[in-house]
Design goal:
four-stranded antiparallel sheet, mainly beta, about 45% strand, flat, about 130 residues, two-stranded antiparallel sheet
Length: about 130
């Protein structure tokens, strides 16, 4: 952009192709290593949803990256296990970092799944992430 003050922020990461799609196009995932000179990190999360309409679902995922060394939250999204003929999507943002006495931190998360199923319904979920890595 010529003539405008554009602030450049260096971003470093690894780009991975997800492979060809049916329509001949493809997508990429980028795993950030640093953003604006700051290291970034992610957390794993997993759990079991509430028991509703005669069943529950399991879920597992990894948060989006966030900078290390400053107060922050992480976005997250995953799809539940296939139970009772359907899945649900879990998406949200963690709470702020909770420090651990030996160093590092974790985050709490909670929410409600998307609506799905023969009898349309949702499930509640909550938990805490793994320590940072």
């Amino acid at each position: 952009m010529q003539g405008k003050n554009v602030e450049e922020r260096p971003v470093y990461g690894i780009v991975v192709s997800s492979g060809e799609q049916k329509d001949g196009e493809h997508t990429h995932d980028m795993y950030l290593i640093s953003w604006d000179g700051r290291q970034v990190h992610v957390h794993n999360f997993k759990g079991v949803t509430s028991f509703d309409v005669g069943h529950r679902h399991r879920y597992v995922g990894t948060t989006a990256p966030a900078p290390s060394g400053v107060q922050h939250t992480h976005a997250y999204q995953t799809t539940t296990s296939y139970d009772d003929g359907h899945t649900h999507v879990i998406t949200g943002r963690t709470g702020p970092a909770v420090p651990l006495s030996g160093g590092g931190h974790f985050h709490y998360f909670e929410g409600v799944t998307t609506v799905n199923g023969r009898t349309p319904h949702t499930h509640r979920y909550s938990g805490r992430t793994s320590d940072e890595f």
